[in-house]
Amino acid sequence: MQQYATQMEAAKRGIITPQMQTVAEKEQLAPEIIRQRVAEGTVAIPANIRHTSLSAEGIGMGLKTKINVNLGISGDAKNYDLEMEKVDMALKFGAEAIMDLSNYGKTNTFRTALIEKSPAMIGTVPMYDAIGYLEKDLLEITAQDFLRVVRAHAEEGVDFMTIHAGINRRAVESFRRAGRTMNIVSRGGSLLFAWMMMTGNENPFYEYYDEVLDILREFDVTISLGDALRPGCIDDSTDAGQIAELIELGNLTKRAWERDVQVMVEGPGHMAMDEIAANMKLQKRLCHNAPFYVLGPLVTDIAPGYDHITSAIGGAIAAASGADFLCYVTPAEHLRLPDLSDVKEGIIASKIAAHAADIAKGIPNARDIDNKMAQARHKVDWDEMFKYAIDPEKARAYFESTPPADRHTCSMCGKMCAVRTTNMILEGKKVEFCTEK
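-> structure tokens emitted (437 positions)
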């Protein structure tokens, strides 16, 4: 019989769980290092006891930067088959986490199939699902109703949940004084803010936080403390509302750890490049080095249709400065529900950002695949290059779309390829262009 309720409890008791062992092997670190970091909260291993298909991943200090893919149906786009194709796409390209953000109708059928299928971590935002699950309008929902949805998601096998517990009355006061341009852009945060204002009550996830933790502990669900007051434009970044909520999240982090519940903290948002590093350090300081999960940050507000790029720029800086987990952003951000092509573009951009950051952070062996790619390019071995590419199919398709006369070059430089020329000289060969056929 299992002697512990959560990964954190096991770690505190000196037990190396199978999940810790799996993470240690993936990260090429000693299991004891993983155990110590889980015990202190600087690494989280989201692993619901009912998610039997899971291949555990670690998020946090000294580990590879992980990425998350958002998907799910809405009232305007209800194609569950398409969403499952997006799941396949996410798994194909190595996303470590998938968040089901469905907010229409009875979503548990899709979510149950997703959890049964996916080796990646599964996350949700119970607040999104509350209205459809409970079949009540927002004003009719009680605090205990919200907790019922949290329990339902935990029982289904969800590994981590975004809970917007930090937007309490104190944080709301700071937000209202700040006079933001974009106000609240978090969907869950806006719903809670509306509920609080309409009912006059405290945020139920804050008021009944201990009850939330009891549910999460029962199934070993990691709490991802949502940033309801994240900036929705660069003009709002690092303002009083964002920082006030972050202070609350730091306190909530410690309360969760006291109950052996693992924690991640969510962060901005939209933010100018020169603010990102400072924000990462501030979050780690205020939230006791808990793993940090960022959406972007998007470094400019003027690129609809290209926000996977604005996000990848910010995500690379954020992760290199201490963030541990990147939520992908697709070209469809701010415009519509992403299609399959958008999902692929978002995943690749986020993977590039995460990998670039891992190199900058000196993550063990992060450079190995880059070195292999460099060696393949040195040999002008195209098949070997495609093998190490993040997206081999696209790389091969580009190469073959304009095939060179000599396969030892590409169509951009042809026989004037710098690599080919240098290799020939170093091999003692003569380089001639006019006489070569």
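The domain at 7-361 is CATH 3.20.20.540 (TIM Barrel).
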